[in-house]
Amino acid sequence: MNNKNNTISSITYDVIKRDIIFGKLKPSIKLKLDNLKNNYNASLSTIRETLNRLASEGFVKAEEQRGFFVNDFTKDDLIEIANIRVLLECHAITLSIENGDTDWEGNLVASHHKLSLLEKETQKDYKKNREEWKKYDWGFHLALVSNCGSQNLLNLHSILYDKYIRYQMAVTKYRGKEAEDEHKILFEAALKRDTKLATETLEKHILKGLEHTLSIFK
Amino acid sequence: MNNKNNTISSITYDVIKRDIIFGKLKPSIKLKLDNLKNNYNASLSTIRETLNRLASEGFVKAEEQRGFFVNDFTKDDLIEIANIRVLLECHAITLSIENGDTDWEGNLVASHHKLSLLEKETQKDYKKNREEWKKYDWGFHLALVSNCGSQNLLNLHSILYDKYIRYQMAVTKYRGKEAEDEHKILFEAALKRDTKLATETLEKHILKGLEHTLSIFK
DNA sequence: ATAAAGTAGAAAATATAATATTTTTTTAAA
DNA sequence: TTTAAAAAAATATTATATTTTCTACTTTAT
After folding, report:
1. What CATH number is associated with residue B82?
2. How far apart are CA A211 and CA B7, in angstroms?
3. Does B49 share its domain with B16?
4. CA-to-CA distance for A90 and B17, rounded, in angstroms?
5. Whole-model pTM?
6. CB A156 to CB B84 under 8 A?
7. Which residue, among B63, B58, B67, B72, has the nearest Cα to B28 in the 3D structure?
8. pLDDT digits (tens, 9 = 90+) for B141-197
9. How far apart are CA A138 and CA A183, in angstroms?
10. Of B48, B70, B92, which one is at a domain's C-terminal end?
11. In chain A, whose CA is at the least distance from the CA of B160?
12. Residues contacting residue A65 through CB under 8 Å, at least 6 positions apart
């Protein structure tokens, strides 16, 4: 998730962020400092540091003198996030394909292979394999954009991906075959350096996922 | 800059961020906790909270167990930032024009008027009026995108604008007439709901500014 | 009787200071 | 140049004070 896990602060950050993304800390709930302090075995200052970071990334909402809350789920927020993800990821994949070298290709092949293997497992028991699936899905999408040459873009993209996926993790049903096919087309388009097909498929992939996830609000 | 200035924490955040943007805290320098504590009259914990926020926005670089540093100036970083700003702001202005109502128009007229008045002053003494100029330039660019309907997009855009402008604030020469003309064309295009002209002008505006700012690296 | 306004006490956030530990950096010696 | 000791600085916690917000209760007015 982050760089290295040397300090208590960075461990706490990783764990709380993960718990928000996977819904262990539910949307809208209040993050009482005293509770977190006990549950995550860190001091008040450390907890506050962590929450401030998460707040500026938009996973947590900080209300001055009222405390911290896990960011709400709202339909509009999800739609906004999906659209920004499309914008950033399509831009990044375009640059990535332009710059693509053999290392990039190799990494892409590997990450798609691992993802497609796991997708078979995931079909069987989504709830159990959600966390693993997210790791490999991210691995693939990161491989796609990793050659874009812009660290700033990669940083933004990674936050938007996590925000998007937090919503998806709240849906109990796996999207399945359809998403797997999109991954395959996307993969092959990127290898063939077909930017147009890649971006079109990627946009479709994200927006289909959005549609699927919108079921939370029905 | 931020919401309200109620807590020491948020005041400290605003002041340190401003000092980074306007170069009072210079690129690459180490932000020693003890110094900051004394210079900004806040406790260690408060300073650390602030720096963690600024680090996750990318104004400060946090190196685990080595401390915090003002983010470097590099040519590549500036180019990346400018390009992401183009991507986000052009997207946002397109949405904004689509949704544009009379309130938006009114606000746009007002902010462009105020900016163009100040631009005359700025010509005379850029160094003196830099801070004011930045305020009104931001006011105008914000007015342009404010109707895009996406809070997530506005949040991202505001950070990218500040990162872009930090570099520009380091250039002693004012870009002048050329930038003013671009503002005027942009303003009129937005009023006429001419999305194509608006986005083209905006892109040109940002990239010309980039070129001007790149002089730092020569 | 009911709704609004006020109030006291509890709970929680904010903020600092003192201090201990660990890591990094600097300085000096081999 | 390497190594060892000392200093500096970051990390982390705890205790504590202050302020603000929240909650439950009481008073007041319609």
Report:
1. 1.20.120.530
2. 41
3. yes
4. 31
5. 0.95
6. yes
7. B72
8. 999 999 999 999 999 999 999 999 999 999 999 998 899 999 999 999 999 999 999
9. 12
10. B70
11. A152
12. B6, B7
Q: What's the Cα-to-Cα distance from B162 to each of B76, B126, B138, B169, B209, rounded to whole Å?
A: 17, 18, 9, 10, 14
What tokens appear for A5 in the block? 């896990």
Amino acid sitting at position B29: I
Of A199, A165, A159, A163, nearest to A182 by C-alpha is A199
Residue A3 lies in a domain: no
**pLDDT per residue as tens digits for the range A148-186:** 999 999 999 999 999 999 999 999 999 988 999 999 999
Backbone phi, then psi, for A30, in 5-degree steps? -80, 135
Give residue-wise pLDDT tens across range B73-92. 999 999 999 999 999 999 99
DSSP class of residue A168 equals: H
Number of folded domains that form chain B: 2
Long-range contacts of A111-118 (CB under 8 A, 24+ apart): A111/A136, A111/A139, A111/A140, A111/A142, A111/A143, A112/A140, A112/A143, A112/A183, A112/A184, A112/A187, A114/A139, A114/A140, A115/A139, A115/A140, A115/A183, A116/A180, A116/A183, A116/A184
- Please answer yes or no on whether B58 and A155 come within 8 Å at the CB atom: yes
Looking at the structure, do residues A113 and A203 belong to the same domain, yes or no? yes
Q: Are residues A193 and A96 in the same domain?
A: yes
**What is the pLDDT, as a whole number, of residue B124?**
84
Asked if strand D comes closer than 7 Å to B48 Cβ, the answer is: yes
**B46-70 per-position pLDDT tens digit:** 999 999 999 999 999 999 999 999 9
Q: Which of A54, A70, A86 is the last residue of a domain?
A: A70
Instruction: Give the CA-trace dihedral at A24, A27, A30, A32, to 10 degrees.
Output: 30
State the amino acid at position A201 in one-letter form. T
Give the count of Cβ contacts less than 8 A between chain A and B. Answer: 69
The amino acid at B176: G
The pLDDT value recorded for residue A4 is: 54
Phi/psi for A67 (5° steps) reads 110, -165
Is residue B180 situated within a structural domain? yes
Pair (A148, A204) in one structural domain: yes
Give the Cα separation of B98 and B195 in Å (integer): 8
Name the DSSP class of A71. P
Using CA atoms, how far apart are residues B218 and B215, in angstroms rounded to an integer?
5
- Measure CA B62 to chain center: 21
Q: In which element (H, E) is residue A153 found?
A: helix A151-169
Give the nucleotide nearest to B46 (CA→C1'): C15
Angstroms from B139 CA to nearest CA on chain A? 22
Q: Give domain status of residue A1, yes or no.
A: no
